[in-house]
Amino acid sequence: MELKNAVAVITGGASGIGEAVARSLAGKGVRVVIGDMDTKNLERVAGEITAAGGQAAYARCNVTSDDDVATLMDLAIEKFGQLNICVASAGIIKDGLMINLDKETGKVKRAMTTDQFKAVVDVNLVGSFITIREAAIRMANNGYQGLLVPISSVNKVGQTGQLNYSSTKAAIALWPKILVGEFQMRGIQNIRCVAIAPGYVGTPMVKGMNQEALAGILKGVHIGRLIEPAEIADIIAYAAQNEAIDATCLEITGGLISNGLAK
Ligand SMILES: NC(=O)c1ccc[n+]([C@@H]2O[C@H](COP(=O)([O-])OP(=O)(O)OC[C@H]3O[C@@H](n4cnc5c(N)ncnc54)[C@H](O)[C@@H]3O)[C@@H](O)[C@H]2O)c1
Question: What is the pTM of this model?
């Protein structure tokens, strides 16, 4: 795909990986539309992209809402005439053990609530589904050259303390094969799907984690540091340009060889 003048929609574009992807693609001539619940930072990111000579639009969007997501996709087409890249980067964590014992009594003191489980499924899994579906509908109907990018995680293998989060990321890692299988079955050749599974990236999400746990995790990372959001953005730009990358989930982990928690 030619990046210059392509159009990208990025959810979660007000922070972290989504913000870095928006900046990186805009710097390569892609016209970007960012959606997020955080309107203050949406405005900041879009303003900074525009000030740097890029083209950006934004809309407040809750990815769990069909209408919000459809409006975001339509905004891209109305404003910039097409839709080529869709990065579903909106996501949340609500970590905790499923059951936690009281040290004195040895009995269960706390448990993950249903809301704590469902909230993460709603944003990370259902929200990504709505985002990818709404983009795919428009790419298929209009014959746009398209790339769908759902975000998985290295924790798709199952991270202790992330029953809710890891469940969503394991599911998303399957999507490229499932969706491209559908496209192949129906003769849809213009849309590719590549999931990205980052390791630990220096974003507000990770900065909000238990820092002791994070220090333990970093001991198992070969490069010995957090990944920069821009390093994830680079891979997405590369995947957009290289048509041979398709129906796969790419891990970018800095060489994470143990998660530092599960023994
Ligand atoms: N940071 C990491 O180490 C890491 C690793 C693997 C995967 N990921 C995934 O990458 C994605 C981006 O994470 P990040 O680290 O940039 O996080 P982040 O917290 O910096 O950014 C996430 C953004 O999503 C937005 N958001 C949350 N709920 C939303 C909703 N319902 N609708 C719209 N926007 C919503 C937030 O406002 C925020 O701007 C997530 O899916 C995350 O699970 C992150």
Answer: 0.97
